[in-house]
Amino acid sequence: MIRVLLVDDQELMRMGFRMVLGAQEDIDVVGEAADGLDAVQMAEKLRPDVVLMDVRMPVMDGVEATKRIAEADTAKVLVMTTFDMDEYALSALRNGASGFLLKDTPPSDLVSALRAVASGDAVVSPSVTKRLLGRFLGDGGGELRDASVLDVLTEREREVLVLIAKGLSNTELARKLFLSEATVKTHVGRILAKLELRDRVQAVVLAYETGLVRPGDA
């Protein structure tokens, strides 16, 4: 069973999520929280597999709550956001979220995303990521990080990181680089370890922040 904690300051929104998720045989909603502070405390107590996190809430917002949960390693966090809250989504990714979805995501996609995050995958649409990072980084909305942080990578690992940032899956990476999926997974694991990153989402963010990949790249 995938244990899920729902966090949203709107009771009706939580009710909707609970109805969708409660209909799944492999998902168990173990608790609900109406603000970020309560979410942090409940995550510590309940130890869910995934926290479905709103970002704009009273007492403590979802970004700070995500940061605390990620630092404590009590659960993975999937952030729910809207098109007009890109900055919050980017901050959540930087602070340890395993992905984000739009609040108007179809129920089937929400369920799939929760399963993916619970299994260790990251959930971020490449097209939405490009728009988000392009707005705050590549298009003059923020300063780039020092690219020397990438010097620990081999040329092959840098190549893999570029393709990860462009949204390729492990299967697509293996096909493009003429490698086995096992070898690709090894490369990805080494990249995350060398750069001290939590998951592929943070790898994507770092690739954009350092200018290794830019939003306009094909």
Q: What can be said about this structure in brief?
A:
The chain has 218 residues and is an alpha/beta fold. It has helices spanning 11-22, 36-46, 62-72, 86-94, 107-118, 126-138, 155-165, 170-177, 181-195, 200-209, and strands at residues 2-7, 27-33, 50-54, 76-81, 100-102.
Largest sheet: 5 strands, parallel
Number of strands: 5
**How widely separated are the two ends?**
39 Å
The proportion of strand residues reads: 5-15%
**Rg, Å, rounded:** 17 Å
What assembly state would you assign to the polypeptide chains in this entry?
single chain
Helix content range? 40-55%
Indicate the low-confidence ranges by residue numbers: none
Number of helix segments? 10
Order of helices and strands, N to C?
EHEHEHEHEHHHHHH
CA-based shape: globular
Question: Which structural class fits the helix and strand makeup?
Answer: alpha/beta
Keywords:
218 residues; alpha/beta; five-stranded parallel sheet
